Amino acid sequence: MRLDDFRIGLRHLLRAPGYSAIAILGLAVGFAACLLLLGYVQYSWRYDAHVPRVEQIQVVKQRFNVDPVAPWFDQAPLLLRATALKTPGVADASAFFRVDVPTVKVGTTLHKMPSLLVLPRFAQLLGLRALEGDLDAALIRPDALVITASTARRLFGSARALDRTVQIGDKLLRVAAILPDPPANTTIPFEALYGVPSVLNDPGMRTELLTGEHGAWGRLLLRIENPDAVPQVAAALQRALDAAPAVQGVAPDIRARLGARRVMDLALSPLREAYFDRDVARNPVSPPGDRGDRATVAGLAVVALLILAIGAINYMNLATVRVLRRQREIGMRKVLGASVRQIVLQFMAESLLVSLLATMLGLLLAYLALPLFAELVNRKLEHLFSPANVGLALLIGLVLGVVTGLQPAWTALRVRPGQALAGRANTESRIGARMRKALTVLQIATAVGLASLAMGIALQTRFAVNASPGFDAAPLLIVDLPGRGKKSEAVRGFMTALG
User: Fold this and answer.
1) pTM reported for the whole predicted model
2) Domain coordinates of the chain in residue numbers?
């Protein structure tokens, strides 16, 4: 394909501005919608993908069968960590806790800082690397704190916050390491880390956090390099759990009610699949963070491709009809000696021009619509327009240009010069007409289907918003209490006053 083919194609597009605008804009809108939806799909499928060798990391889950509902929890007794480290196949093990969000005082300003209390080997397990400072040393120093770069900017106005001090309660801590911000699509979000020796921990709990001998629970992570070893590790942990004092101390009447079922079931689940773990998402104390549904995400990918297909079919039909109107031009070119290759390349060049222009316009429309779309889906999609994604979008535009150019090129090849130049009717071949009609029916059917789906979702949403809760909610007031609820003196006093 030569540059002249594109120049001729551009002249033809400029001669028909109405057709060109409709073709390019229709394809661009479909491309923009497809790009946004596929961006959300990519964001969902790449949860925790930033963790090195993430496919080797397993989350320890358990369910307490004494509970009538018995949901799965991604928390387990900490005593299993010591068992895991002794179990063949386990390369590493650690745990973390999502503590109550502390209020941090910097100067006279107060900030909230979601933090994790982490056990030894947590940083190595997740492959964390400090931008500044010594991360390993920071997690074993009592007065040290590790924060992310964005937290440093928020607290101190600059990412260079090493050795700056913050106050949490009556404790002074020094920033000993700065970490890169974890991506938005992670199931382990944090703004700060501190270790077991930290002054923020109760000294009497430090040994318990490391051993779990008195029944403390946490979120356990294991690295198992050989996937075939996962069942054996899970079985070893289940045996240790069955022998735990908390399980052995269950009352006989409860054991009788359980029958053949265990008091507590244990399972290992890949961290890579944690975002789609609906079992954990349904428990009443599920950790903060987004959870997705695999079927919904896959369905959105299909919808995105269908929208792009509608735009492509619409352009193919418009281009085919325009070829029929250019029969005299095509017939004259054939009479003057234009080869089959030249005819095909000419229409392919026009199709590629339309597709690439639509792709660039679609990227602009998607960029402008991204803030609203991100708000609607409640996800942080600011990295959607990465160089790799833009390059992939342009590649899709090239492929789309080739595919959508096949039908117009085929129709042009079927033009008979004698009939076209004589002015006699020569619309298109019977096969071409049938194909165009089939594409039109497919386009309309797909559009109707997507419109029906959107209408159904809108009606369901409207019904859910307006549905009666079954009681009069007008005189009721909802009060958000602090994280520890009844353990707080202020909360107990408030509830006493209400009573």
Assistant:
1) 0.78
2) 3-47+293-464, 54-281
